Amino acid sequence: MLKAQRKAYVPFRHAPFLLRPNAVTPSSPLDLIKLLKLSADTKNLKVGTTIHSHLIVTSQATENSIIEVNSLINFYAKVNQVSIAHNLFDRMPERNVVSWSALMTGYLLNGFSLKVIRLLKDMISEGNVSPNEYIFAIAISSCCDRGRVEEGRQCHGLLLKTGFSFHNYVRNALVSMYSKCSIVQDAMGVWNEVPVNDIVAYNSILSRLVENGYLREGLEVLRSMVSESVKWDKVTFVNAFSLCASLKDLRMGLHVHGKMLTSDVECDAYVSSAIINMYGKCGKSLMAMGVFDGLQSRNVVLWTAVMASYFQNGCFEEALNLFSKMEQENVKSNEFTYAVLFNSCAGLSARRNGSLLHGHSDKSGFKHHVMVGNALINMYAKSGDIEAAKKVFSDMMHRDIITWNAMICGFSHHGLGKKALLVFQDMLASEEHPNYVTFTGVLSACGHLGLVQEGFYYLHHLMKQFGVQPGLEHYTCIVSLLSKTGQLNEAWNFMRTAPVKWDVVAWRTLLNACHVHQNYSLGRWVAEFVLEMDPNDVGTYTLLSNIYAKEKRWDGVVKVRKLMRDKKIKKEPGVSWIEIGNVTHIFTSEDNKHPDYGQTYQKVKELLAMIKPLGYTPDIGAVLHDVEDEQKEYYLSYHSEKLAIAYGLLKLPSEASILVIKNLRICDDCHSAVRLISKVTNRVIVVRDANRFHHFQDGRCSCLDYW
Hints:
One of its GO terms (molecular function) is RNA binding. One of its GO terms (biological process) is RNA modification. This is Pentatricopeptide repeat-containing protein At5g39680. Residues 615-707 form the DYW domain. The chain is mainly alpha-helical. Among the domains are: 232-332; 503-571, Tetratricopeptide repeat domain (Serine Threonine Protein Phosphatase 5, Tetratricopeptide repeat, Alpha Horseshoe); 575-701, no CATH class. It is 65% helix and 4% strand. It has a six-stranded mixed beta sheet with strand order 2-1-3-4-5-6. The radius of gyration is 32 Å and the shape is elongated. The model is unreliable at 1-24 (pLDDT under 50).
């Protein structure tokens, strides 16, 4: 007995209980092993260690008891005590394949992939036990990242020699490894080289291909299933719906839905959420809602799926309304629910609603959840409260790549380039690898600061260092950077030589720069080019007309107006809104429908009178209406953002900042006026237009008059 105790690796505090005469304990080792397995599956450390103690004091857990020790290794590995498991393993004089498998699985589950490979090498070098298909599958599963792919290839080569590659278990692991390592050709090669295809194998490769974005290959596998008349199961349908959602292929989605309805597969919550997601991703939120309404039982996964379908299609209010209904049915939210809700609030710039939901999520126990924190940063940043976003970021105990990106892009969107780059430096110091989105935010920050040299360094060197392929967004940021610094010819030459197909947004970026820097000849050429790409782009017509007006080429202004009339192109009405208390007040240009419009108009008149001595002159050249100058000045005076700001000054406390959201780009005249209004009223005024946030304070704007 004493000898057995010296071999223990756990405390003996549970042994007295087990040794009491009235203690109820399983009578046979088999019962104990079953209970130990249950403890492992439920991760119940206390019960498992109690059983271990009992095995020790009854001399059933000596190193020669292979079955019992294997069960203990399996238990400790699954309750995150892999070092204890390894100690037990090392003291075994004789091991079987289960011993190796249990320990390797433990290291795999705990994220020690290198340990798994070392154990496989030890197993082969010892030669006492030969690896089987399960051992190889575990080893291959540990190679599912770029850093371990060579070891994975070596395992694959060994498999080909031993013949284990024909086992479905092994083949599925190989497909998963190559897919996760983005080596899709090898994944498909493994798939095609094995002639036997069962539903498990089909589901494995299809799910991996869809998860890793290999949609064309996923479609090929799905078609193969149809041609070979393989019977689909629940997992197949979920994978097929996910593929349709990723492809945004409604026609195929309808076909899969029809196939499922005629099958004997149960449409449970798992399948239903996949159907709802598919219709949402295909732009059919009402069809998603129809599926949802037809369900008798609806859990939080289904509620969240249908909310997400509305959010994905820009129906933010509908998503928030569904949350209220879910609450009425006493369904508790999860982290995915709150992520959808916060992102919906971001879409509406509804800071108050988002703040209330923030409190709700904290009380529900999600204060330190990474996904919820990421959505909160995005919500506060897009709702104009960048300081609240920064506080959420600072308070987060754990961060992932999305967290860092949300904060970097949030600062960039607010024109706070220095802060964005400081966060980027902290990100690199934390050894988090930047990705495509990260560099979009970083290059945008360089643009705000006019850091041309740094921008090109990030584009040509740092992105290459981190294996990020530059895309359209990155090249557009460089165009914006060169344009902001007045290097229009360099921007034009860059666009001619960059290896990318430019879109309208990039060309409009250069066009706007021509307008700001008064390079009207290049501006006219760019405008004509943009209109060839998009003949109905009202923003380009407006900028082109403004260029002609600045040049006093009134024939050009008339020509643009005629083109717009002939094409029946109308400028989208400007709409601005401001939250006062619990109410959102919406204003349009020359709005006379608001209950307090008289008071608001009077406030605008007072403000314009206050800023004229500071040099404000209405920019009547920007008005496209064919009217007298006096009437043009009137039109400019009552643009929607001016009305919303005036109303905020009337209704908000004197120390409160003012946040106004506008659906279009703020015009030159309003920008000049608001900049001066912030000075004469000593107020912080934040305007979020279609492009970015403008922070006006003391007569200055965060965009430095370039937007």
